[in-house]
Write a structure and sequence with these properties.
This protein is 47% helix and 16% strand. The two termini are 13 Å apart.
Length: 308
């Protein structure tokens, strides 16, 4: 029998109505929303379930998405589904650390509320950009970014054929032109509020690292894989340093998935809204067993497949 990992999506997966089905059907999921709302000082139900603009504002998006994922996780755990490893894409790391028992839910909510504000405030609106670079051809993307004037670099290694670049808006545009000339199929500008996972957010990372000193992090009870190193991390001080570095460092998602596979993981359960990580997983290795728990129906499928 293989081993299982829980994986959690990042910012961009959010939508109005996420986790509502779980909220309505599972008391433990409602309790997560109640605890998160109290910790944040605003209603997570309103952000997640009612039509509003705040759901796409980083300072609200991050705690709302965290809450939705953790609520769904409560139903997953109640169903008797367990994992050996856990990881999350960017913001999803906080869900993974909550799943691993490293962070209390209330602490995770408060931290990501501040994280969203730090990230939004660090670079004035309109000065930074991100773009997805898509194509099967092998391109020296790091080298091209390095030789482009201004600040631009790889922000995400998502899966074969898809990376994301981030940095100063003109540098991202120029690098995009060079990458197309070098053989990229498409370079798609992303609708984001800042140049996430670039050196431009170093100041936000420093503020976050200082903030984390006020919180207790415990050793993970599941093996936790860091975005920054694409390896297991477990010492509380190490985790705080990595979470600080993460906002201004590349997300090594493909490498993290490969690390988990090298450690015997052959089943991945994406917990939360959307299917982004499931789609990445299929491109990384088609032989993996991949499940998505976004709906109660999805939960029933996983329960039937993994608990029978």
């Amino acid at each position: 029998m293989g081993r299982t990992a829980f994986i959690f999506p990042g910012q961009g997966a959010q939508y109005v109505g996420m986790a509502k089905e779980f909220y309505e059907q599972f008391p433990k999921c409602r309790a997560v929303f109640e605890r998160a709302s109290k910790a944040a000082g605003f209603s997570m139900e309103k952000i997640c379930f009612e039509e509003n603009e705040k759901i796409h504002e980083t300072k609200y998006t991050q705690p709302a998405l965290l809450t939705a994922c953790c609520a769904i996780l409560a139903a997953v755990e109640e169903a008797g589904i367990h994992a050996d490893f856990t990881a999350g894409l960017s913001l999803g790391e906080y869900c993974a650390l909550t799943a691993a028992g490293t962070l209390a839910l209330e602490d995770a909510v408060q931290i990501v509320c501040r994280r969203g504000i730090y990230m939004e405030e660090e670079v004035p609106h309109g000065e930074g950009a991100m773009a997805a670079v898509i194509g099967k051809k092998q391109i020296p993307i790091e080298e091209i970014c390095e030789k482009t004037e201004g600040i631009v670099g790889v922000a995400n290694y998502n899966c074969p054929g898809q990376k994301v670049i981030s940095g100063e808006i003109k540098a991202v545009e120029k690098a995009g032109e060079k990458l197309l000339a070098a053989g990229a199929s498409r370079v798609v500008p992303l609708q984001v509020s800042g140049p996430f996972h670039s050196p431009l957010l170093a100041g936000a990372g420093e503020k976050l690292r200082k903030l984390l000193e006020a919180y207790e992090l415990r050793k993970p009870r599941l093996a936790f894989v860091s975005n920054v190193t694409a390896e297991k991390a477990e010492e509380p001080e190490q985790l705080k340093n990595l979470l600080g570095r993460q906002v201004c460092s590349p997300v090594r998602w493909q490498q993290s998935m490969e690390y988990m596979m090298q450690n015997g993981i052959d089943t991945f359960v994406e917990v939360g809204p959307g299917h982004t990580l499931s789609n990445f997983a299929k491109k990384i290795n088609r032989s993996l067993r991949i499940y998505n728990v976004e709906t109660v129906e999805g939960l029933e499928i996983v329960k039937r497949e993994l608990c029978s």
